[in-house]
């Protein structure tokens, strides 16, 4: 099946319903279908072999995506914040592609809708090429084929399940997998999409109220800024907001707990996935968030720090360094298999002969099937032969009232192999010195997990989607 099916089904079910809005611009499903067909006709006429999209999310985004799908060519969203030289280098990797830039009038890009090509039947055609964030290595283009994305939709989204009053606020960029999957899943559900081209907490809250937003997706840094902006408020005053989904990076537990207080009538959803898995492969739902907060059982409480259970259609194995499958409760490397799992890059594949994809994430599964992510395998600190997950120490530091954010990394050491270094951002108006924070960790964990050194920063380096750039911190500490 081809992604074009999503638009065809939605258009047939509610043609005049607003599909997408950005600023003052709004497109109904009929409008979107007409422009996508016309642009697909142009792609075929001009022999374009791809569609490159450079710009924030806007009404042009779904036109470009569905035009590429109908024309049978890949859609390639690029990080518009890159330098001109880096963008030019990436564009050069896709010769004969139509380049759609921020501010382009899609109506002028469109040809004759009546000359649109028939939808390709080959579900193995590449649908989207997404460049990975490159937090631990150089970016490479992940290949998501039509069958991967359609498997994700069929496994996680109810077709046409949204009522006419439902609207999703999307602030993640189009070059992130969540930007693509939020688009196709909301349109598949028949839900109006409202785009913000940049995140600001005051504007975000005003948009939720003014547009009657019912669903929103944020990355952890966005939720942290919302919590900080709302301060001592009793609640966020967003009565229409039914659901907040978060993901893309680790969520500090103090931020999540405060957010649950500020949005008491909103269901929270933690969605864990990767670019190579067509987005979400595990979900912690609203009821599970509420149960974890209310429970006196420590096992249930701990689930607030999990990413939930694996979705239907996806298999998970936790393996040791030698490839043996581990029992529940034992941490190791995560491997995934399923119809939505691509694991493919341009020119190479990360999937083994059995169809398993090595995520390079470490984690473990509890006895009830809840998945806990420790972080990237490359981030694991090996101190005196002991494997230490930075996330565990970061969570403890984040509980200190003077800590806004914390990052823990391993730095080379001749005696221990690695020493533990913590980089801390203090909360506004709060103070704690290094020794106080080391003692805070020591009394809650143990001496082997106590940071050897604590330094302070005004902010942590992150990608545009909130992922921590540990390599930048390591370079500072070892320079």
Search tags:
single chain; 479 residues; alpha/beta; Rossmann fold; Luciferase, domain 3; GMP Synthetase, Chain A, domain 3; nine-stranded mixed β-sheet; four-stranded antiparallel β-sheet; 15 helices; 25 strands; globular
Offer a concise description of the structure.
With 479 residues, the chain is α/β, with parallel strands linked by helices.
Average pLDDT value? Answer: 93
Please outline the major beta sheet.
9 strands, mixed
Contiguous low-pLDDT stretches (5 residues minimum) are none
Please report which band the strand proportion falls in: under 5%, 5-15%, 15-25%, 25-35%, 35-45% or over 45%. 25-35%
Strand order of the largest sheet: 2-1-9-8-10-11-12-13-14
Shape summary: globular
Name the structural class.
Answer: alpha/beta
Give me the CATH architecture of one domain, please. Answer: 3-Layer(aba) Sandwich
Instruction: State the CATH class of one domain.
Output: Alpha Beta
How much helix, percentage-wise, in residues? Answer: 25-40%
Counting DSSP H or I runs of 4 or more residues, the number of helices is: 15
Rg (C-alpha, Å): 23 Å
The third-level CATH topology of one domain is Rossmann fold
The total strand number stands at 25
Query: What distance lies between the first and last C-alpha atoms, to the nearest angstrom?
Result: 52 Å
């Amino acid at each position: 099946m081809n992604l074009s099916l999503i638009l065809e089904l939605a258009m047939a079910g509610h043609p005049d319903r607003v599909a997408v809005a950005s600023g003052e611009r709004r497109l109904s499903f009929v409008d979107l279908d007409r422009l996508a067909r016309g642009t697909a006709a142009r792609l075929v006429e001009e022999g374009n072999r791809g569609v490159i999209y450079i710009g924030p999310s806007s009404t042009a985004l779904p036109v470009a995506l569905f035009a590429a799908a109908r024309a049978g060519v890949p859609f390639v969203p690029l990080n518009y914040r890159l330098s001109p030289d880096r963008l030019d280098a990436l564009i050069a990797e896709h010769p004969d592609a139509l380049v759609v830039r921020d501010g382009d009038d899609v109506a002028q890009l469109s040809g004759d809708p009546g000359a649109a090509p028939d939808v390709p039947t080959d579900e193995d055609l590449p649908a989207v090429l997404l460049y990975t964030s490159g937090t631990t290595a150089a970016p490479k283009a992940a290949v998501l084929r039509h069958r991967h994305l359609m498997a994700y939709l069929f496994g996680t989204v109810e077709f046409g399940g949204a009522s006419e009053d439902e609207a999703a606020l999307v602030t993640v960029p189009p070059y992130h997998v969540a930007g693509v999957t939020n688009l196709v899943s909301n349109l598949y559900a028949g839900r109006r999409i409202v785009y913000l081209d940049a995140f600001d907490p005051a504007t975000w809250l005003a948009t939720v109220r003014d547009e009657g937003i019912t669903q929103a997706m944020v990355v952890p840094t966005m939720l942290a800024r919302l919590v900080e902006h709302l301060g001592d408020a009793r609640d966020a005053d967003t009565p229409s907001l039914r659901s907040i989904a978060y993901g893309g990076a680790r969520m500090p537990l103090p931020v999540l707990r405060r957010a649950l207080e500020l949005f008491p009538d909103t269901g929270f959803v933690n969605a864990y996935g990767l670019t190579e898995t067509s987005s979400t492969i595990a979900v912690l739902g609203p009821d599970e968030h509420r149960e974890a907060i209310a429970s006196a059982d420590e096992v249930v409480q701990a689930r607030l720090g999990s990413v939930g259970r694996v979705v239907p259609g996806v298999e998970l194995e936790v393996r040791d360094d030698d490839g043996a499958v581990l029992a529940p409760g034992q941490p190791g490397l995560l491997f995934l298999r399923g119809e939505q799992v691509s694991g493919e890059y341009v020119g190479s594949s990360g999937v083994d002969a059995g169809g398993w994809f090595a995520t390079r994430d470490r984690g473990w599964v509890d006895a009830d099937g809840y998945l806990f992510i420790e972080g990237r395998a490359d981030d694991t600190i090996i101190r005196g032969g002991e494997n230490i997950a930075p996330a565990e120490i970061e969570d403890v530091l984040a509980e200190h009232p003077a800590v806004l954010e914390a990052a823990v990394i391993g730095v080379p050491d001749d005696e221990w192999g690695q020493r533990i270094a913590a980089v801390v951002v203090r909360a506004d108006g709060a103070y704690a010195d290094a020794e106080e924070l080391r003692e805070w960790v020591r009394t809650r964990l143990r001496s082997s997990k106590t940071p050897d050194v604590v330094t302070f920063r005004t902010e942590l380096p992150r990608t545009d989607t909130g992922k921590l750039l540990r390599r930048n911190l390591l370079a500072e500490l070892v320079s």
